[in-house]
Amino acid sequence: MSATDLQDYVGASDLDATYVEACYDQAVSLVDTYVGNFFVPDDVLLRAYLECGSELFHRRSAPNGIAQFGALDGSPIRVARDPLVGVYPLMRHWCNPAGGLA
Predict the structure, then answer these.
(1) Cα–Cα distance for residue pair 22/27, rounded to 1 Å
(2) What value does the mean pLDDT of the chain take?
(3) What are the φ and ψ backbone dihedral angles of 32, each rounded to 5 degrees?
(4) Which residues of 20-48 are buried (b: 16+ CB within 10 A; e: fewer)?
(5) What does the DSSP assignment read for 37-57?
(6) Residues 84 and 92: beta-carbon distance below 8 Å
(7) What single-letter DSSP state applies at residue 98?
């Protein structure tokens, strides 16, 4: 798994490669810190990197946390402020930051 996988996942162009790489590196750091010493299967961990990286990447398109693409009627929606919002459901089976297995 690499920044190239994230680039494909979010549909970014080669012009965004540097930004995508920064998002991927940040996603890895955020997810690894959240997971800590808990065991998480590699395929789930890699998916978490993509989910978090995608959240970070799409923030650029949502100034002040508002995105226009979310609703069919064109009304704006607020995007999540926590880039790990898509990671928590994936990780709940393997880690519980409050202590112990979930």
Answers:
(1) 9
(2) 81
(3) -60, -40
(4) bbebbeebbebbeebbeeeebeeeebebb
(5) TS---HHHHHHHHHHHHHHHH
(6) no
(7) T
Separation between Cα atoms, residue 84 and residue 59, nearest integer Å: 13
Q: Mapping DSSP to helix (H, G, I), strand (E, B) and coil, where does residue 66 land?
A: strand
- Residues of the chain by 3-state class (helix, strand, coil), percent to 5: 55, 5, 40
Rounded Cα distance between 47 and 50, Å, is 5
At 7, is the secondary structure helix, strand, or coil?
helix
In the block, which residue shows the tokens 């946390």?
Answer: 65
Q: How confident is the model at residue 102 (pLDDT cuts 50, 70, 90)?
A: very low
Q: Residue 29, SS3?
A: helix
Length of the chain: 102
- pLDDT tens digits, residue range 23-71? 999 999 999 999 988 999 999 999 999 999 998 888 876 665 555 555 5
